[in-house]
Design goal:
The protein is of the alpha/beta class. It has two domains: 14-165, P-loop containing nucleotide triphosphate hydrolases (Rossmann fold, 3-Layer(aba) Sandwich); 177-268, Conserved Hypothetical Protein Ylqf, Chain: A, domain 2. Helix content is 42%, strand content 13%. The protein contains eleven helices and six strands. It has helices at residues 2-9, 15-28, 49-54, 72-82, 96-108, 127-135, 177-185, 196-210, 220-226, 238-250, 262-268, and strands at 33-39, 59-65, 86-88, 115-121, 153-157, 161-165. A six-stranded mixed beta sheet has the order 3-2-1-4-6-5, sandwiched between helices. α7 (177-185) crosses α8 and α9 crosses α10 (238-250). The longest helix is centred in the last third of the chain and has 15 residues, at 196-210. The two termini are 23 Å apart. It binds guanosine-5'-triphosphate and magnesium ion. Guanosine-5'-triphosphate is lined by residues 65-66, 68-69, 89-92, 121, 123-129, 142-144, 146-149, 167-168.
């Protein structure tokens, strides 16, 4: 029963996503290439098939962001599975975008008019960071929470390229409990839409299984105790501990962790 409740809790498909999805269908016709952005830690659940479908026969560039937080061998396998043209970046570093620009040029060629690209992906995947990386300065607002970009907006990148930033869009119903906690953990769902204790517990159970019990990452009770999350009276404050725990995962404090494996998760999907 817990799973059923959990599945209902971690769903987020507000009106602005419905509206953006509709508008995007119009803009897709105007662009030369669609840049699909996903977090390298969840390259399976992190791509929205609805967006891929909406891109129709447009050329695509798939970018895995947060490759600084993902396990390198897994990212390499994912890039192979996704096929060219795909690449991974740490979108917070400018250097990564030399290669992104080269791939884009290869894809769209040298036209007479400025070429246009639409950047799409699920919330908090790093779309606006990719725009800033392409622009070489901070033009689009970025923040570490889901749902920052709410409008579709064009940005000029030099004289050759115009890129459109779009709001993050999830699927109306995230299929499995596994995909739900993983997307919540990486920040694709707003904080008030999930129970952080449940997500932290599921993450640790998953990691324990994956590593055959050899992980050094603490579970939530150990973390709460070590970090002094106690209420008056000596009881542990698991809720706030779990928020910190989730943040630490995303700050890379527990090391690089890829949540979906190219070999396992693709085959069983
Ligand atoms: N460590 C790391 N952080 C990143 C990377 N890319 C983006 N971020 C951070 O992730 C957070 C979200 O990035 P955004 O670019 O705002 O994500 P978005 O997809 O535009 O989000 P929405 O507009 O809410 O859908 C920000 O705090 C970024 O600094 C990356 O490659 N590595
Ligand atoms: Mg954004």
């Amino acid at each position: 029963m817990k799973d059923a409740g959990f599945e209902q809790i971690i769903q987020w498909y507000p009106g602005h996503m419905v509206a953006a999805m509709r508008k995007m269908a119009d803009y897709i016709k105007l662009v030369d290439v669609v840049i699909e952005v996903a977090d390298a830690r969840v390259p399976y659940s992190g791509f929205n098939p609805m967006l891929d479908q909406a891109a129709g026969n447009k050329r695509r560039l798939k970018i895995l962001t947060r490759d600084d937080l993902a396990e390198r061998p897994e990212t390499v396998r994912w890039l192979e599975a996704l096929g060219p043209p795909s690449l991974s970046v740490n979108a917070r570093t400018q250097g990564a975008f030399v290669e992104v620009k080269r791939r884009l040029r290869d894809l769209v060629g040298d036209g007479h008019r400025p070429q246009r690209a639409l950047v799409v992906g699920i919330p908090n995947s790093g779309k606006s960071s990719v725009i800033n990386g392409l622009a070489g300065r901070s033009v689009a607002r970025t923040e570490d929470r889901a749902g920052v970009t709410r409008q579709l907006q064009w940005f000029k990148v030099g004289t050759e390229l115009e890129v459109m930033d779009t709001p993050g869009i999830l699927v109306p119903r995230i299929a499995s409990a596994d995909a739900q906690w993983k997307l919540a953990l990486v920040g694709a769902v707003p904080r008030d839409h999930y129970d952080p204790e449940d997500v932290a517990d599921r993450f640790h159970r998953w990691l324990t299984e994956k590593t055959g019990g050899r992980t050094k990452v603490p579970d939530l009770p150990a973390f709460a105790q070590a970090r002094g999350f106690v209420r008056r009276g000596g009881e542990s404050d698991y809720h706030n501990a779990a928020r910190s725990y989730v943040k630490d995962v995303n700050d890379g404090k527990f090391g690089r962790i890829t949540l979906e494996s190219a070999t396992r998760d693709v085959e069983t999907a």
